[in-house]
Hints:
Elements: H1 2-51, H2 53-61, H3 70-82, E1 95-97, H4 103-132, H5 138-176, E2 186-188, H6 189-206, H7 209-219
Parallel strand pairs: 1-2
Amino acid sequence: xxxxxxxxxxxxxxxxxxxxxxxxxxxxxxxxxxxxxxxxxxxxxxxxxxxxxxxxxxxxxxxxxxxxxxxxxxxxxxxxxxxxxxxxxxxxxxxxxxxxxxxxxxxxxxxxxxxxxxxxxxxxxxxxxxxxxxxxxxxxxxxxxxxxxxxxxxxxxxxxxxxxxxxxxxxxxxxxxxxxxxxxxxxxxxxxxxxxxxxxxxxxxxxxxxxxxxxxxxxx
Length: 220
């Protein structure tokens, strides 16, 4: 009888290990599909940005350097009210140059991917939440849904802040800060794109800090 009990226990243990093994790979399979859908969403939005190249660059990427950009106009208008010309930023003409043969093409690809990532972010976050919500209780699911909503909203606000506020100020600072008036600034395309993308993406990330603080405070 003792040997039979030991044998049964071993069989049950093997079955349990097999179930855990299958469950583990089932979760991996689910995670794989969530990641695939998230990547597809980035690709779709990136292709959309790739197709509308002229609009993306002329009306979005290069706009903050122009005087008629909404932020520049508003700041200049405010400067006129208070009697100061300091707020009239990006009023001088900015020359952007390309010094490498393939630079424009790779910048084009890079910008398309960045825009695809930004536009797909809410959906990516939702896909990740859909995977992890299986392990949550009903009360935790309700809280996590709010986190998904607020994180997406804060990211969008951060992106808008980066584009309309941070980017024009950064462009003005780096193009007007000179060591001598005898030097003419000719900004490379790569540097300009780095300034734009850094200002926008960093702002989006910074605006996510309240969510991170909320999650850490809940754990403690």
